[in-house]
Amino acid sequence: MGKLKLPIRVWILVLFIIFALLAIKPTPYATGVQVKSFDVGGDAALAGLEKGDIVLSLNEQDIFTVTEFMTELAKLQIDEQEIIIKTDKEEYTYNVTKNVGFEVNENLTILSVDTAPMQIKETVESINGIEVSNLSDFKATVIKLLPKKIVKIDTNNGKIAFLTRGMPNIIVGEASKSNLKKGLDLEGGTRVLLKPIAEDQEVTEKDIGDIIQVLSNRLNVYGLTDVRIRSSVDWSGEAFILIEIAGVSKEEVKDLIAQQGKFEAKIGNNTVFVGGKEDIPFVCRDDGSCSGVRNCWDQSGQSYCKFEFVIHISPDAAEKHANVTDKLKIISAEDGRDILSEHIDFYLDDKLVDSLQIGADLKGSKTTAIAISGSGVGQDRNSAIQAAVDNMNKLQTVLITGSLPFDLEIAKLDSISPLLGSHFIKNSLLVGLVALLAVALVIFIRYRSWKVLIPMILTSLSELIIILGFAALIEWNLDMAAIAGIIAAIGTGVDDQIVILDEVISGSKERHINWKKRIKSAFFIIFAAYSTTVAAMIPLWNAGAGLIRGFAITIIVGVTIGVFLTRPAFAAIIERLFKE
Amino acid sequence: MLALFFLKMNIKETYMKNYKKLLIIPIIIFAISLIIIFQHYSSTGEIVDKDVTLKGGLTITIYSPIDIPDLKAQLKLEFPKGDIIVRRLTEFGSNEQIGLLIEAAEVEEEELKAVLEEKLNLELTKDNYSVEQVGSSLGNAFYKQMRTALILAFIFMAIVILITFRAWIPAFTIVFCAFADMVFVVAIMNLFGMRLSTTGIAALLMLIGYSIDTDIVITTKALKRKEEGNIVDRMTSGVKTGLTMTISTVVALTVGYFVSQSYVIKEMFLIIILGLIFDVIMTYLFNTGVLVWWTRRKAKY
After folding, report:
1. Which residue of A124, A236, B222, B231 has the fewest CB atoms within a 10 Å radius of its CB?
2. Residues 6+ apart with CB under 8 A from A566
3. Is A294 found in the same domain as A244?
4. CB–CB of B255 and A428 under 8 A?
5. Tell me, what's the ipTM?
6. Domain end call among B117, B134, B151
7. Rounded CA gap, B259 and A196, in Å?
8. How close A528 gets to chain B, by Cα (Å)?
9. Are residues B220 and B118 in the same domain?
10. DSSP 3-state assignment of B107?
């Protein structure tokens, strides 16, 4: 029973270790496959799939690994098949997988073309020789040709099922083994440091708040969810915005982030409407009847595709449109149509993106629905279509979210491969292990006692656990800077333990001094060293746009935990072991 | 054991006889370091060469076992204006290459990426390719602010130490030792053509922390432990503690240096190891000497 009477300081340490372990929640044997992301607004999302769900089975097949999931998912992939479509103009033969690649209206007139070779305004007459006369005919034939399949997913949060055509875009990864969050360095993704360019004005805190609002809105509308945005001000008063987006490459988001996104529609010199909710209450997207890639053509070895989508403008903007167009003359276009004497020009960040003729019938009209168009270029048809879809998506995003109050300059742009992280974590653990063994060896050579060595290793390990527990609790992202900080903090801890050992157990001459005094004198040195470390780290808080803050914070947190928790407990244990 | 005992006595006696003369060794090394830095400054206008994280540019990591021996020369031909460094990343133990690290200034990322894809005959995707890009204005701002951070760190530490020991000369000596360690490391970096990065500056700050720990131990022994015997005995026990601290740190960092695959960690560890080795000279020849001289002079009055 006597052995259980540990000093209170040791109990406090044990309590903290338990708390830390609860916070980290290590589940090294966590198995299964966890949902990482899926299309926002897609079939799976509508059926109730949630990020973080553990997939137990897919279509009645038990799932244990990511590969199994991918294999099962790939079974839903539809084989490419040939399709023959006859329109009023021509007969087309092409390959389809997910869908027929065009949209029709109730009269079977083609409204938009995605991957199909026909032109809009043609009318569909038959599919694979089966005549279609109305929309329900058309739909029934298409479903027979490209049947929807049922997807059943059994997760730890219940069962879901939905119908889909083709392979649903669900990205999974291995189930996470603890609550520790990996920083971008270790996880892979894109990091952008932005600086608002304000020429004469001052950038206020509200401005920064507005920028962050618009940017996070944009990234969300674009379909990215794992986004971290924060701002920081450095010593010279320069404001920076740091954006970290996991799992995407910089090409995908660069335009979206760096663009001010100032959209203007002008007729002559008159601005009719600008981007943002105020002038544009509705933007059509993900709806083939009013948004899509309309037609493609080849020109001098390149492929071009045109996209078009409808927006609704506010009554005020419509009024403006009526006033401006009313003053224009009606002229004859090259193809003989009657058009107005000025074009409507669309500008994005002061760059002309498109210029369209205005039909004569729109003169003086308070029209609220306007078609916006643009194009995409590529080496071949498919890449041109993809480029047009991307451009359309970006333009729609900018129109919905409006423009930023300032132009932004990219001060730093990193794109980090996820491979780096997995390598680095394994290697860091190895480095930590050999470093600890090396320290243990030095300590053993010096003191020749297991009574010293074992408490020392245990103390260092408990320090590591508590620092990680703290990181899990405040959802701190562990990146390389933080790992370096942890190494430094634990290194300082070892130094302090040596001070305690030497003050308390060595030097027989000093036996006349009592224990309390010895520990007190050890802690005098420890506190002095602690204060200088913290003093040295504080100036790093704002230096370099706050990018090195993680390093400073980890060291400060680490040494604070050490000084107030682990070292008092270590001293108590050593006192207990050597007091005889 | 007896021989060891005499050796110890001998070191102690020799040291106590000659401690004033021994002060000259750290001072000479410090002076040479200053000269090296001054020479570098007068020829380049910089105290130390900066890498791309501090002057702006690209850091590219490619994960591939493909290695071309003269990749650097080939890149140099393609980008005559560019400032390009190529390093191999290898696995500890097997020495197998796991990737390449390329630092480049004055080169556009798209162009460099295209050339690398062609030379390595490898498609660079987001899975095998990382790039970190620092704008030059940001790099410069980084450098200036990190410099300010270093100066502020020194001022703050000086205040803390002065409050702790309430004596000018010992406090000043501690700060001077930390400063000399830093100067020494920067001089070594100049000699071997190493470049300073943001990581390097963080490492210098860590070095200061470790360096000061041992100085605090011996200063405490000299100033606050009069009851533990004479100055010689107190210093001896302080030196023993301090050396154990430094040796354990240096040994841990050295094995860590060889095992680590991360260039960032390697650079950080190397700077601290170099600094701590010189810190042994600074702490035990300079700081100890000053403390012995100072306590004896005070005792006379």
Report:
1. A236
2. A13, A459, A462, A463, A466, A493
3. no
4. no
5. 0.87
6. B134
7. 42
8. 7
9. no
10. coil
Closest approach of A298 to chain B, Cα-based (Å) = 26
> For the domain that residue B123 is a member of, what is the CATH number?
3.30.70.260
State whether residue B108 is helix, strand or coil: coil
Same-domain pairing of B85 and B150: no
Q: Please, which residues bridge with residue A151 across strands? A: A162
3-state helix, strand, coil in chain A (%, to 5): 45, 25, 30
Check B131 against A443: CB less than 8 A apart. no
Query: Domain span at residue A232?
Result: 189-259+412-416
Q: How far is B115 from chain A (nearest CA, A)?
A: 18
Beta strands in A137-279 (DSSP E): 149-155, 158-164, 170-174, 181-182, 189-197, 227-233, 239-246, 263-267, 270-274
DSSP lists the bridge partners of residue A243 as A192, A229
Beta carbons of A544 and B142 less than 8 Å apart:
yes
Q: Does B152 touch chain A (CB under 8 A)?
A: yes
Q: Which of A288, A262, A265 is nearest to A116 (CA)?
A: A288
Please say whether the beta carbons of A333 and A355 come within 8 A: no
Classify residue B167: in a domain, yes or no: yes
Which tokens sit at A37? 């992301």
Q: The whole model's pTM is what?
A: 0.76
Is the CB of residue A376 less than 8 Å from the CB of residue A390?
yes
Are A535 and B249 a contacting pair at CB < 8 A?
no
Q: How many interface pairs between A and B have CB atoms less than 8 angstroms apart?
A: 220
Task: Pick the residue of A241, A430, A486, A532 with the most B CBs within 10 A to test the interface with B by mutation.
Answer: A532
Q: How far is B267 from B194, CA to CA, in rounded Å? A: 10
Q: Assess if residue A301 is contained within a domain.
A: yes
Same domain, A125 and A232: no
Q: How far is CA B113 from CA B74, B106, B116, B193, in A?
A: 14, 14, 5, 26
Q: Are residues B194 and B123 in the same domain?
A: no
- Residue A202 falls within a domain, yes or no? yes
How far is the C-alpha of A473 from the C-alpha of A465, rounded, in Å? 12
CATH number at residue A161: 2.30.42.10
Residues of chain B neighbouring A188 (CB-CB closer than 8 A): 126
Of B130, B142, B240, the CB nearest to A417: B130
Give the containing element (helix H, strand E) for A429: helix A418-447
Over residues A121-177, the pLDDT tens digits come to: 788 888 888 888 888 888 888 877 777 778 888 888 888 888 776 667 676 777 777
**How confident is residue A2, by pLDDT bands cut at 50, 70 and 90?**
very low
Taking every pair of Cα atoms in chain B, the longest distance, rounded to a whole number of angstroms, is 78
Dihedrals φ, ψ of A198, to 5°?
A: -115, 120
> How many domains does chain B fold into?
2
The answer to the question of residue A183 being in a domain is: no
> 188-247 in B: which are within 8 Å (CB) of A?
198-199, 202, 205-206, 208-210, 212-213, 216-217, 220, 224-225, 227-229, 233, 237, 240-241, 244-245, 247
Q: Which two tokens stand for residue B199?
A: 């990581």
For B97, the domain range is 57-134
| Under 8 Å between Cβ of A115 and A293 | no
Number of domains in chain A: 5
Other CB atoms closer than 10 Å to residue B254's CB: what's the count?
15
Same domain as A397, residue A287: yes
- The verdict on B137 touching A (C-beta cutoff 8 Å) is yes
B148 and B292 fall within a common domain: yes
From B245, which residue of chain A is nearest by alpha-carbon distance? A495
Question: What is the per-residue pLDDT across B108-139, written as a single tens digit (0 to 9) for each?
Answer: 888 888 888 888 888 887 778 888 888 888 88
CA A232, CA A411: separation in Å to the nearest integer?
Answer: 13
Taking contacts as CB-CB distances below 8 angstroms, the residues of chain B near A535 are: 153, 156-157, 159-160
Residues of B with CB below 8 A from A480's CB?
262, 264-265
